[in-house]
C-alpha cells in the first residue's frame, strides 16, 4: 500500500470523535464539490450516504464479510461459483505458509485494502505480508468512510486460490451495478495493480464512452462468451437489495464470485461523465436507486 494511502487511512481512523453525519458531510464536499442533501437525496452518491446513516439491515454485515458471504452465495447460486478456500484465520500467526500452494491470495474479511497476491512462493516475502495483515486486522474499516455494514465484522484473514487469467497478472473484475435486482451498469477492471484499465458498459455490453473518470482509451474489453450467465448470477445475488454492486471474475469460461459492495467508492466517487454535465452519471444512477425505509 502506498505511503499516501496509509497516511489517509491512519488520519481517518483518528477522526473517530467526529459524528458520522458531520464526517460524511465534510468528506462529501471535499471529494465531490457539492453540498450533500440528506433530506432530499437525488444523486447516487447522496443516496449511498443516506444508506450509511439510515439503512441498517443486519444482513449487510454478513454480505460484506468476505468469509461469511460464502454461505449466502452457496445457497443462492451454488458452490461452484466460489473461489476455492484454503483457510480462514483469526490471527496472522495461524497461517502456515507451508500448507499453501505455490500461488494463493491472502485478504482480510473486514476491509477492502488488504489483498496480498502470491504468484511464486519461493520469492514471496511472508514476513512483510504478515506485517501488513496485522495492521489491517487492527483496523475497523467502518471508521474510514462510516460505512455501517463494516462496523461489527469480526476481523479475520482468508487464504484463497489464485485465479489465473492468461495474459493478466490479476484477473479482470466485472462489476455489476444492480438496483432492485436489475443490472444498470457494468464496470470492468483489468490489471488493477499494474496498468489499470477501467471501462464501462451497458447491461447489453455497449461501451459507455461518455464516462471518462479514470477510464482508459484502450481497446474495449471483449464481452465474455458466458456473459449472459454472469449477468444472471449477479442479478440473482442482488435480488433482495435496493442497490448492491456484485463483482465477478471469469476464468476460462467459469464465473467466480468476488464480493458484494453496498457503498461503491465509499459514496465519494465522482463518476465524471462529460465536461458540460460532470455529475450526469451520478444523477442517472441516482434515479434508479429507490431508497428503502429508514431503520437506523
TrEMBL record:
InterPro entries: ATPgrasp_TupA. This is ATP-grasp fold amidoligase family protein. It holds the Pfam family ATPgrasp_TupA.
